Amino acid sequence: MMKQFFFTIMGLMALASAQHNHEHHRVNVAVYYEALCPDSIKFFTQQLYPSLQGNLSQFVNLTLLPYGKSKTTEQIPGQYDFNCHHGPAECQGNRLQVCALRTIGEGHNSEGLGYNKVATAFINCLMDKVKPNGNQTQFPTQDCATINHVPNYVNIENCANHVEGSQYLAEVGKQTDALKPPLTSVPTVVFNNQYKQDDNELAKTNFVKALCQYIHGEKPAECTKNSAHTAKINYALFGVFACVWLYAV
Fold it and tell me: I want to staple 86 with a disulfide (CB 3.0 to 4.6 A). Which of 36, 78, 125, 172 is the partner?
């Protein structure tokens, strides 16, 4: 009995130590994007979200900023109008997302993670399933809430349709406008609060590789797999070029 108790305590201590270690080595990742931007949708659904489905998720402090190239006008104190890159429907999509980030889990991170897992999954679903149709675009809020077990989707819609949602989006707009150098394209990915063009471009096509560069100490398995995959591709390309060269000679 005492032996079982001892191993249980040791296991819990190891788990707590591992979690603390991951927190210590988390990379701050800020993603500036737009709800209806094709490049933003591609990055979110094909790079960012898939990368967060394994151990790599424990090494990220994620900040999502759905605003992009929008412009904000404050008509009267506390009430805002927006001019969004892909039209009024995108403004609604941006508001839905900021409201989801504020509402789901009351805006708190999931346990052991540097972001809210449910809110991120919900937003990924919105990005993946929306079918842009100009001003008639409908966002699959209810479907995505059902898929991701979000019980308060009506609260998210109410937030997006009222002053509260506009205020949240205006705050994200201020954060976006504060980016140095100023944002020129979306998505823009910033690691550890410092924009680097090379890292931003790499992240769009290989987010795992871009992120792993910033993880110090013991890296998760995804980083090793990514390096091995890259090495395999480079070796294959070397073989092809070698054959071509020999044939030419």
Answer: 36
